[in-house]
Amino acid sequence: MNSRNTTVAVYGAYGHTARFVIDELERRGFGLILSGRDEERLLALGNDHSGAQIRPASADDPESLHRALSGAAAVINCAGPFAHTAVPVLDAAVRAGAHYLDVSAEQVVSLAIFERAADAGTVVVPSMAFFGGLGDLLATSAADGWTDADAVEIGIALDSWHPTEGTRLTGQINVPRHLIYTGGTFVPPPQPPRTLKWEFPSPTGTLEVSELATTDSVAISRHLSTPEIRVHMSQQPLRDVRDPGTPAPVAADDSGRSSQTFLVDAVVRRGEEQRRATVSGRDIYAVTAPLVVEATSRILDGRITRTGAAAPGELFDAQDFLRALAPEPLTLLWDGR
Ligand SMILES: NC(=O)c1ccc[n+]([C@@H]2O[C@H](COP(=O)([O-])OP(=O)(O)OC[C@H]3O[C@@H](n4cnc5c(N)ncnc54)[C@H](OP(=O)(O)O)[C@@H]3O)[C@@H](O)[C@H]2O)c1
After folding, report:
1. Mutate which of 40, 78, 128 to test ligand 1's pocket (most atoms within 8 Å of Cβ)?
2. Could you tell me if 81 and 14 lie in one domain?
3. Model pLDDT for residues 67-87, shown as the tens digit of each residue
4. Which domain holds residue 204?
């Protein structure tokens, strides 16, 4: 670390995803500000992170947010549903001169953040997470320099999906606002959703997948000129996440990660040519931490010189970014062109 300010505030700090983010920030030597609306839970969390500053703040109270973020070089907003937190935390971050990143899986929120922060004086990256950031980095890696394409298709295979409370609450708000990107624009998805067979690399093989509205399409549409960005997921996790009886994720070992596995396969087509990039790994919540912390690190170490809102694929060298996270927590399964 050099003499730059490397203090990072995490808002929503005692949430499931935020805890992975805080551990990753700490592991990499960043200073920590832990913020959120429940002071007692922040203090309890602080017991595990000596040296962290505890700063309660409410998304409804701009002055408390401003105080919480003052002195931070960046804020990572992990408090979702983001429909309630993204705009106030973004505004407070920009006012405090801090970069803003979030892990939103809400398309309309990410679209709004791109618009609101287009000319922000700091760097703003919404959806720097499993949904959003990872798909964009994969599609950008696969595109390998193409700035336009006929179509981007992403296939996601999860062996299961045990959702957190935050995922369930977000789904309640977000499902009626789902959008897919087709014909060069965002439109409501057809009902029933498009279903097709996806050939994943072995040993997963061919699975039936259904179209899913994710923030991957928002991020990719910012910088890759293409009329079609379609994202699909295998059936078992969709059944799990829609079942109110599915339990929350539990740690399978000391890393805190659950046993859930993921495979994300991005295919970019132009004319007769097709390019592909694929990764596998464990736990979609946990892997969000190295993704958003690697992004924060690249912004704070001076590699990023532009400001304003940007998608991961336009901000970072996508192939270099993904390689930095391999072989753990990501396994890169490139099969080239
Ligand atoms: N894009 C992706 O791939 C990805 C990956 C992981 C997570 N996420 C998203 O991240 C969010 C959190 O997920 P999670 O798994 O960490 O859920 P979680 O364990 O339930 O944590 C949610 C956190 O958000 C806080 N929060 C919620 N509403 C708030 C509000 N209005 N004001 C202040 N704080 C608020 C909660 O605090 P309280 O307990 O005080 O409400 C808690 O700290 C969800 O929206 C989820 O969809 C997205």
Report:
1. 78
2. yes
3. 999 999 999 999 999 999 999
4. 131-284+327-332
